[in-house]
Specification:
The complex is a heterodimer of chains A (about 110) and B (about 120). By secondary structure, chain A is mainly β. Chain A is built from no helices and eleven strands. In chain A, strand 9 (about 85-90) and strand 10 (about 95-100) form a beta hairpin. The chains are: A mainly beta (about 110), B mainly beta (about 120).
Chain lengths: ~110, ~120
């Protein structure tokens, strides 16, 4: 199974900050990667698919990049509603595998 | 608008089985994969397995092989996840998710674009 290593596991930031979360795959996965946001008690929400494509309705301050094994999610200017946990997920092959998650907290 | 509605919370004894349902509406059910993802309390997301209803064949994570069975009923647009030999560590929220297809002129990519509301399964003696 492909392992997804996500970092950092937690991150403290302030409103207005630019933050970056990274995900590394144990083997090349083309651009078959999505980013998901999860708030407490809620189902995850798709933000980015195919590594860099913004899901409809998601604010443009979210962006994704990368291909092969290294990927990043960037939030250009943090808003209060962005404090949540973020996960990457590879959909290159089965079994699908998630990163461990990054908890984004208010500084 | 696609909606996935899951069955309600369950409390089970160790050693028993649980079957969670996920009913889809508002879209074409048969041709999209449905995955099951679980989240233990305070933990991350864990993919358990998935099925494409039109094909009927499921893929499972190695960790759950032999204990989980994922099925789909095209006539009712409902997917099911059954987990057997339950233990306390299986206490978690179980989600179903649709794997949508996003196509450009050159390729198609997948993403979990719609999720159920989650079903809490508690395993306790």
């Amino acid at each position: 199974a492909i392992q997804m290593t996500q970092s950092p596991s937690s991150l403290s930031a302030s409103v207005g900050d630019r933050v970056t979360i990274t995900c590394r795959a144990s083997q090349g996965i083309r651009n078959d990667l999505g980013w998901y946001q999860q708030k407490p008690g809620k189902a995850p929400k798709l933000l980015i698919y195919a590594a860099s494509s913004l899901q409809s309705g998601v604010p443009s301050r979210f962006s994704g990049s990368g291909s092969g094994t290294d990927f990043t999610l960037t939030i250009s200017s943090l808003q209060p509603e962005d404090f949540a946990t973020y996960y990457c997920l590879q959909d290159y092959n089965y079994p699908r595998t998630f990163g461990q998650g990054t908890k984004l907290e208010i500084k | 608008q696609v909606q996935l509605v899951q069955s309600g919370a369950e409390v089970k004894k160790p050693g028993s089985s649980v079957k969670v349902s996920c009913k889809a509406s508002g879209g074409t059910f048969s041709s999209y994969a449905i995955s099951w993802v679980r989240q233990a309390p305070g933990q991350g997301l864990e993919w358990m397995g998935g099925i494409i209803p039109i094909f009927g064949t499921a893929n499972y994570a190695q960790k759950f092989q032999g204990r989980v069975t994922i099925t789909a009923d095209e006539s009712t647009s409902t997917a099911y996840m059954e987990l057997s030999s339950l233990r306390s560590e299986d206490t978690a929220v179980y989600y179903c998710a649709r794997e949508g297809r996003y196509c450009s002129s050159t390729s198609c990519r997948a993403a979990f674009d719609y999720w159920g509301q989650g079903t809490l399964v508690t395993v306790s003696s």
